[in-house]
Backbone:
């Protein structure tokens, strides 16, 4: 098998402003604790984290031949992610992120995030699994693209992992994707996303909606409350989160996804994979940026063995 995982989706640069102070220090000047540029986008974040966890990873994304695109390419190559599937784009999106002292964040996107990227036209090489990130945002705000990629993946016998984001420029609903949910082995929305798409308040009820659409396994990420797993077999289990002081939550869900995929592909149980994924997400929040804190699978295992809670 050529790859363990192919990540498909958006690639961009995150301009992270941490500790922004709203009181001006001059007529047009403001200060912040720190500012940094980081390769981002779910496909990038997951592929980099998965490569650090010793998976053979490729990425299918679109990048411009610009400064932002060069930063993303160099980050991917530095961590051993195969960039042979990357396609050209007129420009690379840049997101501005405002991160508060507790690690929570707000982001500003722009029309570059709506670029015309058609991953369904690319023939994928052999891989054990594919991950789509982020469902409900470009290019996965097009039901035809979603269905085409998932159909091809299942025909090739690949495990399908799908993460989600709240929509920005184009809004589609779960009903628009009703023909694609049965092709998803795992879907991993956070609690806010799951509530938005299902109209439910309770995480287990949210999971039930996705299961009724045909998803095999639903994982609701609940931040400091851990995560809930419910499968088509009807079981439900909540796994607690790790008790840490978060610096920046950017990419925590993506590191969680990479950790979960890596352990499933290693043959571990879903619960074992979720414990490992929780640790990956927690470690990510201890530094600014999605790719700064996580180093290796050994680091995660040692961190878990230390009993950090």
Residues:
């Amino acid at each position: 098998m050529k790859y363990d995982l192919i990540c498909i989706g958006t690639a961009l640069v995150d301009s992270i402003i941490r500790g922004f102070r709203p009181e001006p220090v001059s007529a047009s000047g403001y200060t912040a604790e720190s500012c940094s540029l980081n390769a981002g986008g779910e496909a990038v974040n997951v592929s980099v984290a998965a490569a650090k966890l010793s998976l053979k990873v490729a990425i299918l994304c679109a990048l411009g031949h610009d400064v932002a695109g060069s930063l993303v390419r160099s980050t991917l190559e530095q961590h051993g992610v195969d960039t042979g599937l990357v396609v050209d784009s007129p420009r690379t999106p840049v997101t501005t992120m405002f991160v508060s002292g507790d690690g929570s964040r707000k982001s500003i996107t722009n029309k570059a995030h709506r670029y015309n990227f058609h991953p369904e036209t690319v023939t994928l090489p052999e891989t054990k699994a594919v991950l789509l990130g982020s469902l409900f945002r470009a290019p996965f705000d097009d039901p035809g693209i979603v269905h085409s990629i998932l159909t091809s993946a299942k025909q090739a016998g690949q495990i399908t992992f799908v993460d989600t984001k709240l929509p920005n420029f184009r809004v589609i609903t779960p009903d628009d994707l009703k023909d694609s949910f049965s092709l998803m082995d795992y879907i991993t929305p956070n609690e806010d996303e799951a509530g938005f798409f299902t109209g439910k308040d309770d995480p287990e009820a949210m999971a039930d909606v996705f299961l009724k659409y045909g998803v095999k396994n639903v994982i609701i990420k609940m931040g400091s409350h851990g995560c809930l797993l419910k499968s088509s077999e009807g079981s439900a289990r909540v796994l607690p989160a790790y008790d840490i002081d978060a610096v920046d939550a950017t990419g925590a869900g993506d590191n969680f996804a990479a950790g979960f995929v890596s352990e499933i592909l290693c043959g571990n149980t879903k619960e074992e994979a979720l414990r490992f994924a929780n640790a990956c997400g927690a470690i990510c929040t201890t530094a600014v940026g999605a790719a700064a804190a996580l180093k290796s699978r050994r680091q995660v295992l040692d961190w878990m063995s230390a009993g950090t809670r």
